[in-house]
Amino acid sequence: MSMEFLPDKPIYQQLVDHIVGDIIRGTIKVGEKLPSVRDYAVSVGVNANTMQRVYKELEQMEITETRRGQGSFVTDNTERIQELREEMKEQLVQSFIQNVEALGFTTNEMVSYLQKRGGHDD
Amino acid sequence: MIKLQAVSKRYGFKQALDGVTLSLPAGKIIGLVGENGSGKTTLLKLMAGLLSPNSGVAALDGQVITRRVAATVAYMPDTDIFYPYFTVRQLFEFYDSQFEDFQMKKAEQILEFLNLSLDTKISTLSKGNRGRVKIAVTLGREADYFLLDEPFSGLDPMVREDIAKGLIRFTDTERQTIVMSTHELKEVEPLLDELIVLKGGQVLAHKAIDEIRSSCGMDATSWLVSLFRS
Known about the structure:
The structure holds 2 protein chains of 2 kinds. Chain A has helices spanning 11-25, 37-44, 48-60, 78-102, 107-117; strands at residues 64-67, 71-74. Chain A is mainly alpha-helical. In chain A, helix 1 packs across helix 3 (48-60) and helix 2 (37-44) crosses helix 3 (48-60). The longest helix of chain A is centred in the C-terminal third of the chain and has 25 residues, at 78-102. By secondary structure, chain B is of the alpha/beta class. Chain B has one domain: P-loop containing nucleotide triphosphate hydrolases (Rossmann fold), CATH 3.40.50. Helices cover 34% and strands 27% of the residues of chain B. Chain B is built from 8 helices and 10 strands. In chain B, the strands form 2 sheets. Chain B has a 6-stranded mixed beta sheet, with helices on both faces. In chain B, strands 2-1-4-5 form a 4-stranded antiparallel beta sheet, covered by helices on one side. In chain B, helix 3 (104-113) packs antiparallel against helix 4. Chain B is globular, with a radius of gyration of 18 Å.
């Protein structure tokens, strides 16, 4: 099925985030080969130019590498993946803090609530 | 690249296009939107060499557009074009006899991708399957430009998705350019690089989709609505 996209962000960026998410989650493994640009574009229902840009961005972020004549592979540099996890964590926390402050909560209040709440997944 | 310089077109007293200046870069997928009667079909037909302007110049890769561009431009009208007594195979053979760039192998692959068979008679096909055959026979050409008039209109969501996927699978933006008119902007947006908005025969806007999203912070549909309201 084609993917749904948010309105306020370029589609290529949403696809980069989606693939990075899959790598962090482990749905796409370290060193794994990504589908060809065309195949990926068909499966999510976007223009091949957009997908080309996604692959270029991923390569510039050193998340993937292109091997001549073989296609794109997720980096096997686990340090880079670890770094990516940290970057993602930082992004999440930043947007969390923004939301929290917008509603007038203090960070301390939220931290103690999170600790009290514990590891509930619901 | 297709370039239009101050192109106007009248039908009798009706001004269909009024001083349109546009340049459509090669290798992009470009959407053409606007109300009914805003000039979308006229613009496509002018680029396909099926109409000539009353004033102004329309050129393709530096050459003034005439009927001859049909050799490198594949135009898909929004009407049913087929002889109903043809089978799909006969239709493909007819196209093969008319267009040097028609690739029987490719057309058959597209047909298979869309789960249709060569030996079906066109008169027995549903409207959706006629839509599929139409895109198959159009994309079966190795044209430099594909000009598609309303490829999605009046078709159910499954057919629309098939046509969208067929377009991505069987065109190559490294050497091919697609211009398509549509009213289904929400669905079509992920397929597009650029958007041209027509109103009353004039170009209201021409923008890259990424730019609409990043600088205006909204998708193309909301942007279009805000453009028409202002």
